[in-house]
C-alpha cells in the first residue's frame, strides 16, 4: 500500500433494546501512531458522543478519524476508549486497532470472517474490518446486546 492510503476509524452506537443506554456512550481516541489526522477528522483526546441511530433523524455524522500514514500504513494504529460517563456501572473499554491487524481481518472472505468482540453481554462492543478504495476501514460498534460473531 502506498502512503496515499488512509486508515479510517469510525465509532457508533447500535443502542439495541436491552443493552445499556447506547444513547449515552462516548468514544475517545487517546493516541494515534505513525501518522497524522486528516482534516475533517473528529478530535482526539476528547470525549465524542456516539450517535444513535448513526446518521439518521438529525443525529449528526458518525464520528470518524482519518489517519494519513507517515510511511507504511501497516505501521499505523489508533488507541481508543469506549465509556459511559453518566453510568458508573458501564465498563470503560480500551481498544487498540492496528492497521496490520485490520489488513489481515479484511483479507478474509466476508462469509468466513468473525467480528472482533471487545465486550460481551449488555455492554456489547464489536469491531468490523474492511478494505475500501482509499485504504483501510475499521468500525467499532457499541451499545450492542450480546454481539455475535459474523457467520
Please supply descriptive tags for the structure shown above.
four-stranded antiparallel sheet; mainly beta; 10 strands; six-stranded mixed sheet; single chain; 151 residues; 1 helix
Proportion of residues in helical segments: under 10%
User: What oligomeric state do these chains adopt?
Assistant: single chain
Biggest sheet strand order reads: 3-5-1-10-9-8
Q: Overall mean pLDDT score?
A: 88
Order of helices and strands: EEEEEEEHEEE
What sort of overall outline do the alpha carbons produce when their principal axes are compared?
Answer: globular
Beta-sheet strand percentage? 35-45%
* End-to-end gap: 28 Å
Q: Please count the beta strands (DSSP E, at least 2 residues each).
A: 10
Q: Report the biggest beta sheet as strand number plus sense, adding barrel if it closes.
A: 6 strands, mixed
The total count of helices amounts to 1
User: What is the CA-based Rg, rounded?
Assistant: 15 Å
Extract low-pLDDT stretches.
none
Structural class: mainly beta
Structure description:
There is one protein chain. The two termini are 28 Å apart. The protein has one helix at 99-107; strands at residues 6-13, 26-33, 35-37, 48-49, 64-69, 77-83, 93-98, 116-119, 124-132, 135-144. It is 6% helix and 42% strand. The strands form 2 sheets. A 6-stranded mixed β-sheet has the order 3-5-1-10-9-8. The radius of gyration is 15 Å and the shape is globular. The protein is built from 1 helix and 10 strands. With 151 residues, it is mainly β.
Amino acid at each position: 500500500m502506498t502512503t496515499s492510503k488512509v486508515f479510517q476509524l469510525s465509532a457508533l452506537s447500535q443502542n439495541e433494546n436491552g443493552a445499556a443506554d447506547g444513547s449515552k456512550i462516548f468514544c475517545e481516541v487517546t493516541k494515534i501512531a505513525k501518522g497524522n489526522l486528516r482534516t475533517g477528522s473528529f478530535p482526539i483526546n476528547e470525549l465524542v458522543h456516539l450517535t444513535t441511530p448513526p446518521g439518521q433523524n438529525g443525529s449528526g455524522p458518525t464520528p470518524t478519524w482519518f489517519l494519513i500514514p507517515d510511511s507504511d500504513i501497516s505501521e499505523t494504529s489508533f488507541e481508543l476508549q469506549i465509556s459511559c460517563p453518566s453510568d458508573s456501572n458501564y465498563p470503560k473499554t480500551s481498544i487498540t486497532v492496528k492497521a496490520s491487524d485490520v489488513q489481515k481481518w479484511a483479507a478474509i472472505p466476508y462469509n468466513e470472517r468473525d467480528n472482533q468482540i471487545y465486550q460481551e453481554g449488555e455492554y456489547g462492543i464489536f469491531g468490523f474490518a474492511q478494505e475500501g478504495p482509499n485504504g483501510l476501514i475499521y468500525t467499532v460498534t457499541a451499545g450492542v446486546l450480546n454481539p455475535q460473531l459474523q457467520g
